[in-house]
Amino acid sequence: MDAVKNLDTSTRILNAAELLFIDHGFDGTSMRQITAAAEVNIAAVNYYFGSKDGLFQAVFERRAEPFVRLSLAKLTELESTVQANDPIAIAESFLSAALEMGSKPEYGGLVFVRLLARTYIEPRAILKEKIPQRYGELTRRYQQALERALPELSAAEVAWRFHFMTSAMFNAFAGNHVLRLFTAQPMVNARDPQRVAQMLLPFISAGLTSPAAVQA
Amino acid sequence: MDAVKNLDTSTRILNAAELLFIDHGFDGTSMRQITAAAEVNIAAVNYYFGSKDGLFQAVFERRAEPFVRLSLAKLTELESTVQANDPIAIAESFLSAALEMGSKPEYGGLVFVRLLARTYIEPRAILKEKIPQRYGELTRRYQQALERALPELSAAEVAWRFHFMTSAMFNAFAGNHVLRLFTAQPMVNARDPQRVAQMLLPFISAGLTSPAAVQA
DNA sequence: TTAATTTTCAAACACTCGTTTGAAATTGAT
DNA sequence: ATCAATTTCAAACGAGTGTTTGAAAATTAA
Predict the structure, then answer these.
(1) Cα four-point dihedral sign B167, B173, B176, B177
(2) Is the CB of A167 under 7 A from strand C?
(3) Checking CA distances to B166, which of A63, A176, B143, B156 falls within 20 to 30 Å?
(4) Which residues on chain A are in Cβ contact (under 8 Å) with B25?
(5) For the segment B51-78, what is each residue's pLDDT rounded down to a tens digit?
C-alpha cells in the first residue's frame, strides 16, 4: 500500500504543499505540482481549501498554532519560578519551544522552522491580515517578559535584541546561511537541532545581556 | 523629461527588476511587470540579458560585486593594524561595509541588503553554480580572520557565530522580522541604518566573544 | 435497498507565462 | 548620403496558470 494514500486527502495535500512551498515558494509552486505529489485530483485543493491562498494559510496555521501554544506555555511555566526575570531563561524557553517542535514528527519536525523562515521573507497578503491578530500574544508576552528581565534597556532596544535573537535562531534551524551564497560548500551543518541550539545559546545569551547601546 | 527614460535601457530594466524581485520574488515577478515598470518593450530583457534567469543574475551581481570588494578591502586594511586580531573590530569592518553600501546611492542604498536577504532564502539554481566560486574569497578570508581572533573556539564554532552574526545583521537591515508575522505593527524600525548598526554592535560583539559552547 | 450526502474525477475555462520572430526605427561610421 | 550594426517594437508562439463545471463514484443514513 502506498504510504501517501493512507492519509486523508486534505492531509496529503497539506504535507505535499508544505514541502513544495518551502523549497520553491508560493509562486514557484503550482497546483499541479502539489496535487501530483499528493496523488490527488487537482480539483481537490479548491474543494477542501477554497483556493491556493486558502491552502497556504492552512499550511502555515497548522504549524504556527502549536508553536505559539507551546512557547506561551513554556513562558507561563517559567514565570511561576524564581527564574522569571532571567533573560537567559526566557531565551531558553523560546529556544526549547522551537526545539520541541523540531523533535516532534506530529508537528512536522524541523519543517515548521523552514516554513517560518520562508514565510517571513515572502509575506503573502493573507498572512498580513489574519495571522497577526490571532497570534499577537506571542510577541507581546515575550517582549514584556524581556523588558522586566532587562530593566536597564529601553523597550525599543529590547525589541531589537528579540529581533536579532529570533533572526539568528530561525535561520540557523532552517539552514539559511546568508553567506552560503558566496561559498561552494557550507561551513555549518544544521541537521542536528540539538547541536544548533548548543551553538546558539552562548551567542544569544551574551547578546541579550550585553550593555545597552543607548541609555534607557 | 521622464526620469526613468534618461537611463540606458538595460539599467532601467535592472532597476525595475531589482525592486520587483525584492518585493515579490523571482517567480512572483513577471517579465511584463518588469518591462512595464522600466518603460521598455518586453523583448528588451531577452535582448540584453538573454533570459529572465540571466536578468536575475545580472541584478544580483551588480550589488554583490561592490559589496564583496568593499568588505574585503576593509578587512585587508584592518589586518595591517594592531586590531587585526580583535574579533569586534573584524565584525565592525564587515558591518561598516554593509553600512557604506547602504549609504551610497550608486550602490543602490539599502536595496542591496534586501536583495541579499531575499536571495539567500530563495536560492535560484543559477546562483548556486556561478556565484560561489567567484566570491568565495569573502567567507574564506573572514572565517580565517575570526579563527585567528578567537583561538579558544573551534573552526566550526567560529563558522556558527559568523552565521548568527550575518543572519541578525542582514535581516535587521532588510527589516525582516520573523515575528512580524505575529504582530500587527512592527516593534522595530529599520529605516535608519546608522541606528540599526548602533543596536547591532553590542549584541554581535558580546555574542562573538562569549565563552565557547564546546572545547576547541 | 434506497436515498441523500460527500468526495473524486476528467475536461475545459479564460488568462498569464517567458520567449521568439521579423520588420521598423535608430544610431554610428565611412 | 549610404551602408551596416544596433536597438526597439507589435504581434504571435506554445505551454502552463488557478479555477470551475457537472457528472461519476464512494460513502453514509434511513
Answers:
(1) positive
(2) no
(3) A63
(4) 25, 27-28, 122
(5) 999 999 999 999 989 999 999 999 999 9
